[in-house]
Amino acid sequence: MPKVGEVYKDCLKQVSDVNLFSGDVRNLICAHLNYKSQIDVIIKSDEEFADFAGFSEKFARFLNGEPVEYITNKTTFLNYELYVDNRVLIPRMETQELIAYISENIFDYFDPRNYLVVADIGTGSGCIALALKMLFKNWLVSASDISKDALEVAKKNFETYGLPIRTYQGNGVEPFIENKMALDIIVSNPPYIIDKSRVQDSVKGYEPESALYLDKDRSVYENIFKNYKKVKKGPLLICLEIDDNITDYLRDLMNKYLDKFEFRFVKDLNGFDRFLIIFIE
Questions:
Q1: Contact 134, 160 (CB under 8 A)
Q2: 3-state secondary structure (DSSP) of residue 281
Q3: Which site in 58, 61, 210, 246 is 20 to 30 Å from 238, CA atoms measured?
Q4: pTM of the model
Q5: Is pLDDT of 171 > 90?
Q6: pLDDT-based confidence at 201, cuts 50/70/90?
Q7: What's the CA gap between 98 and 105, in Å, rounded?
Q8: Between vectors from CA 56 to CA 51 and to CA 61, what angle results, nearest 5°?
Q9: How far apart are CA 210 and CA 18, in angstroms?
Q10: Do 235 and 109 meet the contact criterion of CB atoms below 8 Å apart?
Q11: In 66-197, which ranges are continuous DSSP H helix?
Q12: CB-based burial of residue 206 (10 Å sphere; 0-12 exposed, 13-18 middle, 19+ buried)?
């Protein structure tokens, strides 16, 4: 049986040849050996590597381009460990930035101590709804997705943390209209990619296309803008994750459907327009 340090060094050599990340190797080893921290890979380097054959199968999947999060069924979002598989997108750093923006600026729009009614549309793994409910206990958070499979993943994550988040299957705002809900906040990270050449091979090969690529004939953005009046009871805050090359498209949609609104495009840490924040009186 090889030692942990020997396996780690051999893995590093292999990933360096194919431009994969050493941090992902440590995550894979930690998940397989039930280590709590990546530093354990170093500290326990002289221990025997348990079930090396099983790990080798996982590592082969990783070398083939499969994201480590799908192999381990784990990812971290704002320090919360979430279950993920190939039915949902892997949560990104930019979406964490959206949660940070909301938490830092919510006082500009509402008193967050109130029982605000919040809809996370296109919830996927449930990361947005989960993070908002953890941050704002009083908020009445619901989550929807057009995909039944995605909702199963989201429910699993909500149940892990014991969160009372209702889930609805359906497109855009429609489930909330059907349930006669009046919303204060809409948050969504919908499909927004239009230039597939910018997408990494590992994303193209493994993550669900329906959650990646913008179909302007079935746009979640347009669905929200077109139907917002049916769920609006008073002031409404809409927080959307976007791609930097669809800002003109979004301006056209806002001008077409929205009344008495203020908006701003917010840049991410890399300097790209990544969020659209809309407030409707």
A1: no
A2: coil
A3: 210
A4: 0.94
A5: yes
A6: confident
A7: 11
A8: 135
A9: 28
A10: yes
A11: 68-72, 93-105, 127-135, 148-160, 174-178
A12: middle
CB 212 within 8 A of CB 199: yes
Residue with tokens 């320090």: 79
Residue 205 has pLDDT above 90, yes or no: no
Q: How confident is the model at residue 247 (pLDDT cuts 50, 70, 90)?
A: very high
For all residues of the chain together, what is the average pLDDT? Answer: 95
Q: Where are the beta strands (DSSP E) in the chain?
A: 75-77, 80-82, 117-121, 140-145, 166-169, 183-188, 232-241, 261-267, 273-280
Burial class (CB in 10 A: 0-12, 13-18, 19+), 45: middle
Which residue type is seen at 268? D
Question: Do 39 and 32 touch, CB atoms closer than 8 A?
Answer: no
Neighbours of 208 (CB within 10 A): 16
Strand partners for 267: 273
**What is the spatial distance between Cα 66 and Cα 202, in angstroms, rounded to a whole number?**
6
d(C-alpha 83, C-alpha 89), whole Å: 11
8 A C-beta contact, residue 115 and residue 180: no
Closest of 7, 13, 18 to residue 46, by C-alpha: 7
User: Residue 108 above 80 pLDDT?
Assistant: yes
Q: DSSP labels for 39-67?
A: HHHHHTTTSB-TTHHHHHHHHHHHHTT--
Q: What is d(CA 3, CA 9) in angstroms, rounded to the nearest whole number?
A: 10
